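User: Could you go from structure to sequence for me? I need the amino acid at each position, not a summary. Structure tokens:
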């Protein structure tokens, strides 16, 4: 059956029932709806409804050239398959993609009104970004934020009514719990093997247990331009100290820790942030000098406790940190 000509203009108000009659689809089923009678895919955004599931990224970029739309999936990391597939494959399947935003309800009814935003295509260069969000239980996860490009100009008043997204192509940093459940958001390719990671995790747990009265979190660093996401080791909120843990107190591990901490602190905006390396034992004198001259502190396990050597705050250390 040939698809009916799409007659809506940006700003027109309809209901889902209207769309079903003319173009197919579904009155109730979710925010991403492929039509069953036309070559169309409809996406619906409703910030008031979606906020409870972490859908907080919908809206236009500040220059109006990109419409950001959060994918489907209320629990755990969102996947590229299933309900999100119609957006990803609309181009190769020759289907047009149309977006709508909630615009109140029909008078005397609970039926929602939908404002037509316009027709879009998925950005072929950067089709989506992964962004942090909370699921229904409050656990940290990632959601897919699709980058949709307008096929034709969208009136300014419609853009204003839909609103703007907080998504940016600039680096952004958020504080996250020490324990996270996301397997998608964080770059782990530069991490050590499984055994080393387990030893580092055990070392971190022991260190936290010894720091009575201190609160620890982590920093998640998103670098959109590189499509890279970094996860720091623990951050002590009381001492404003960021720790990078290593399972081995050897030279190669310490040199890696120095590079990681230098990279992280470029993005973590904390006044008087201090950075330290956490080790399972005391390193050699030369390696301790390396950390001291780099302006970094040291924490290491010694018998049943931990020894803390704070970063060097001398003029020499300050010059090296600049």
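Assistant: Here is the amino acid at each position, in order:
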């Amino acid at each position: 059956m040939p698809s009916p000509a799409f007659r809506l203009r940006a700003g027109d108000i309809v209901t889902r029932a209207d769309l079903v009659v003319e173009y197919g689809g579904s009155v109730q089923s979710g925010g991403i709806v492929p039509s069953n009678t036309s070559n169309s895919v409809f996406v619906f955004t409703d910030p008031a409804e979606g906020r409870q599931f972490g859908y907080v990224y919908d809206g236009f970029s500040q220059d109006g050239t990109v419409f950001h739309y959060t994918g489907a999936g209320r629990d755990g990391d969102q996947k590229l398959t299933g309900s999100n597939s119609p957006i990803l494959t609309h181009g190769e399947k020759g289907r047009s993609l149309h977006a709508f935003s909630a615009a109140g309800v029909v008078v005397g009814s609970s039926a929602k009104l939908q404002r037509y935003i316009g027709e879009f295509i998925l950005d072929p260069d950067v089709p989506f970004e992964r962004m942090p969000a909370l699921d229904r239980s409050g656990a940290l996860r990632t959601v897919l934020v699709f980058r949709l490009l307008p096929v034709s100009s969208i009136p300014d008043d419609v853009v204003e009514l839909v609103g703007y997204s907080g998504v940016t192509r600039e680096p952004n940093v958020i504080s996250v719990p020490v324990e996270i459940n996301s397997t998608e958001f964080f770059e782990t390719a530069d991490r050590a093997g499984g055994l080393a990671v387990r030893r580092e995790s055990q070392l971190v747990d022991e260190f936290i247990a010894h720091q009575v009265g201190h609160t620890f979190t982590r920093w998640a660093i998103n670098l959109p331009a590189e499509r890279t996401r970094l996860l720091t080791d623990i951050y002590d909120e009381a001492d404003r100290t960021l720790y990078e843990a290593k399972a081995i107190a050897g030279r190669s591990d310490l040199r890696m820790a120095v590079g990681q901490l230098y990279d992280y602190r470029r993005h973590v905006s904390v006044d008087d942030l201090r950075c330290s390396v956490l080790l399972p034992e005391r390193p050699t004198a030369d390696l301790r000098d390396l950390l001291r001259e780099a302006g970094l502190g040291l924490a290491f396990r010694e018998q049943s406790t931990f020894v803390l050597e704070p970063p060097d705050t001398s003029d020499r250390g300050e010059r090296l940190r600049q």
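One structural detail worth keeping in mind: The chain has two domains: 13-167, 175-321.
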